[in-house]
Amino acid sequence: MVTGGSSGIGLAIARALGEDGYGVTISARRPDKLNAAAEELTSAGLDVQAAPANLVNEEEIVALVGAHRERFGRLDVLVNNGGVGIGGGLTEIETKFLDMQIGVNLRSYV
């Protein structure tokens, strides 16, 4: 399972795992981008499913793990690639964005 798997490093890791024979669940917040990534990997012959989830929502994380388990039976590899980066000075960042960054980058893996 790869969080943040719809682009960049996460997508590359998902591809590498799929090419090594793993069944892969990719996850990200935006279903449209996530589904496009899953289609790309599936069309390359890889066993991939998309499962959208917001990593600050515990219920969505539980559902994500459940979706992977339902399809593949077990979880052998977990890549916690999902993350948020908010640029700018501390006095310039809105509290809601700082809270989101802390929620995703620190709490989502607990």
Explain what the structure shows.
The chain has helices at residues 8-19, 31-43, 58-72, 95-107, and strands at 2-3, 24-27, 48-50, 79-80. It has 110 residues and is α/β, with parallel strands linked by helices. A 4-stranded parallel β-sheet has the order 3-2-1-4, sandwiched between helices.
Itemize the secondary structure elements and their pairings.
Layout: E1 2-3, H1 8-19, E2 24-27, H2 31-43, E3 48-50, H3 58-72, E4 79-80, H4 95-107
Parallel strand pairs: 1-2, 1-4, 2-3
Main attributes?
single chain, about 110 residues, alpha/beta, four-stranded parallel β-sheet, 4 helices, about 10% strand, elongated
Mean pLDDT: 92
Which word captures the global form? elongated
Order of helices and strands: EHEHEHEH
Structural class: alpha/beta
> Uncertain regions: pLDDT < 50 for 5+ in a row?
none
Numbering strands along the chain, what is their spatial order in the largest sheet?
A: 3-2-1-4
Structure summary, number of beta strands: 4
Helix content: 40-55%
Q: How many whole angstroms does the radius of gyration measure?
A: 15 Å
Terminal-residue CA separation: 16 Å
How much of the sequence lies in strands comes to: 5-15%
Query: How many DSSP helices?
Result: 4
* Biggest β-sheet description: 4 strands, parallel
